[in-house]
Amino acid sequence: MLEGVLSGRPAFGPVARFGTDRCRVKVAAELPSEPVLATELTAVIDDACRSACLDPDSRAEAAFLLALHANPQAARDPAAGSVNGSSAADVAERSGLRQPARVYVTACVAASTAIADAAAMISSGRAGTVVVAAGFLVDADTFGVFDAGRALARDGQVRPFSAGRQGLLLGDGAAAVVLENAAVARRRGAQVLARLAGWGRAGDAYDVCQPHPDGTGLARAITAALSRARADVTDIGYVNANGTGTAFADASEAAALHRALGGYASQVPVSSTKSVHGHALEASALVELVVTVLALRAGLLPVNAGFLAPAPECELNLVLGTAREASPRYGLSLNAAFGGASTALLVAAA
C-alpha cells in the first residue's frame, strides 16, 4: 500500500465493474477482478489479527467495530434484510470475532468515529482489545449518485488544494487494525506499530453537504485531539488531510488548519492521499490512518498528487513532486463528512 501512495501515481482507471455510459465521469480506483466485500474484510482482519499475535481465544474476546457502506439493494428490496447487520455478523463469524459487532455508517467519518470509540473503550477499561475494520467497494448506485451530483472530477484526477480542482473520485478500500494497551500487546509478543495519542470529534451543523466556510467544526476536532494528547501544534510533523479535491471542502479545510494551528499551518507538511487512492467513503478514514502510520514509520511523507498551481484560498505547505523525508513526532489524520461531522486522529510511530 505505502509504495503506491508514496509514488504519487494515481490509481484511477476506467470503471470495469459496471456500465458508465450514462455518467459524466467514467473512472475510479478499483481492485482487480470481482472483489466481494466480506472476503476483502475477512482478509485484512485476519492479517491484522495475525500481526497482533491474537490467537483464536483472544479474537473471540475482542470487541469488533465495523465501518461499512450501506447496500442500496437493501433499500429497494426489503427481503434483502439489514445488509449492514448481516454483513457484520458474517464478517465476525468468518474472522472468529465477538458478536454482535457495532456497525458504523456515518459516511466519511464512520471509521474514524469507530477508532475514537475504540480508544475510549480501552482507556476507560470497558474493553481490553478492539478490532476495527472498514470497507467500501465502488458500486453503480453510489457512483451514479456522486456523478449526478457533479461531485466527481471530470478530468479524471483528484487535485486537493490546487487551482483547477474539479472534485473527488471514488476508490475501493478495506482496512483493519487492532487497538489495545501497549503493555498488553508487548506481553503477548506483538509488535506495537503506533500510538494513538489523541482524538477529537466535532460538528458544525452548517449545511447538509458543505462544511462551514471558516472550518470551525474541523478546527475544534483538531484542538480536541491536541488537548487530549497534551501536545502542542508544533509537535505535528505531518497532516494527512481530508482533501477531497472539491472547491468548497478544500478551502474550508485549509481555513480549519489555519484556525487550529495558527501561523504553524503554513509550515506543517500537508498532503491528501485521496489524490492517489480515491475516496473510499466509510472506509476512507481507516485507510488513511493506516497510510499515515506507515508513512511515519518509513520516515517518508506521501505526495499531494494532481497539483496544478497554487490556490489562494488553500495556502498550505503541500508535499509536491516526490515523497518528502521527515521524522515527525506526530501525524494528524483528518476526515469530514456530510452534515458537518469532523474527526481528527493524532498518531505517533512507536
Can you give a write-up of this model?
The structure is a single chain. By secondary structure, the protein is α/β, with parallel strands linked by helices. It folds into two domains: 2-155 and 169-187, Peroxisomal Thiolase, Chain A, domain 1; 194-349, Thiolase/Chalcone synthase (Peroxisomal Thiolase, Chain A, domain 1), CATH 3.40.47.10. It contains twelve helices and 14 strands. The protein has helices spanning 2-7, 37-51, 56-61, 72-76, 83-95, 110-123, 140-148, 182-187, 216-229, 247-261, 274-277, 284-298, and strands at residues 13-14, 27-28, 63-68, 102-104, 129-136, 173-180, 194-203, 236-240, 269-271, 300-301, 317-318, 324-325, 330-336, 341-349. The strands form four sheets. Strands 7-14-13-8-9-11 form a six-stranded mixed β-sheet. Strands 4-3-5-6 form a four-stranded mixed β-sheet, sandwiched between helices. Helix 10 links the parallel strand 8 (236-240) and strand 9 (269-271). Helix 6 (110-123) packs across helix 12 (284-298) and helix 9 packs across helix 10. It is globular and about 55 Å long. The two termini are 19 Å apart.
Compact overview of the structure:
With 350 residues, this protein is an alpha/beta fold.
Task: Give short descriptive properties of this protein.
Peroxisomal Thiolase, Chain A, domain 1; 2 domains; alpha/beta; single chain; 14 strands; 6-stranded mixed β-sheet; globular; 350 residues; 4-stranded mixed β-sheet
